[in-house]
Description:
The protein has 357 residues and is mostly helical. The protein has one domain (4-356). It is built from 14 helices and no strands. The chain has helices at residues 4-31, 40-46, 57-75, 80-106, 110-126, 137-158, 164-182, 190-209, 218-238, 249-260, 262-277, 290-296, 301-324, 328-356.
Amino acid sequence: MKDISTDIFFTFYIIGMFIISLVLYNLFSYFSHSFGIRDFQKTETNRWNPNHKPSVGGFVFYIVFLLTVIFSTLLFGIPVNEKIKIIGLWGASTIAFFMGFADDTFNTQPIIKSVSQLSCALLLILTGTSIQLFQNNLVNNFITIIWVVGIMNSINMLDNMDGIAGSISLYILFFILMVMYSININIFSVSFLIISGLCVSLISFLFFNFYPSKIFMGDTGSQFLGLILSFYGIDYVWNIPVHTNIIHPVLLHFVLVAAVYLPLLIDTTTVSINRILAGGSPFIGGKDHTTHFLCKRGWSERKVFFIFGIISVSSLIMAYQVIFRFSTTWFYTSILFSLISFVSLYLNTKLFWSEKK
């Protein structure tokens, strides 16, 4: 039962995780001047900001995650029906974390990253987390694999400019938190506490990662966040029930997913199309992201940060309305907004080069 003591306890938890995150970021920032800085030439070709900075943000994300799981287990316990899924989440997130750490440290081969991401997806499926859109489980599992691997790569690709990947991840996690709250998920459930803790950790991270940044999240952070975003996106976006008989549920949920993860999907799709058309590989990094082209237009990094924030928050508001206050107006407005955002950012990348010729 919700009472004043519950609110106080939750408030102390949030404040505690915020303070822990700030302390850890300060410690990593102070003591890790060279830690997590991989080959400079590779970093320079992937990020808009080429300066040497430690890629340690992911360590704090993972520590907050572990502390929350331990804290929740010891104080509140985990229901039997949820325990196996949390074990799967812990295992997959640990694989993602160490794979990202290896990439930050050694510049691992793409095949190692792909195998690790596939392992994460399969582990989630084996522990009961999968997209449930169709009656055929093979189709559902295939979509789940594409989803998990895709989001892990998308966050990694979006982490190309100060504050962008961290802020977009924060908005999406906060949206999922609001969905959980709206369907009366216990605020002391392990999942609610995990997302709450990561939200405050991301807020404190942005103090250090907002332009001009002091630290990066690195692959350690982007792979871990990608796993978290894909995991909770399955239960609270893909599989969330929407009460309407007007729109086919498969179409509705694809539109819903596009709205929630819009900035990720726009950037990944744009970069992939342009690189393939240019005869290159979509998996080789470069300064050809939607964020980069806005800067090439003369926009400052701070303006690009706010533009992506406006796109994300606006789309998330529409997605929330589609779930809890469904109407065809909100549904089609969400589609229109997503299309306008994609076309605008994509055309900017094409028009920039045509104007340079």
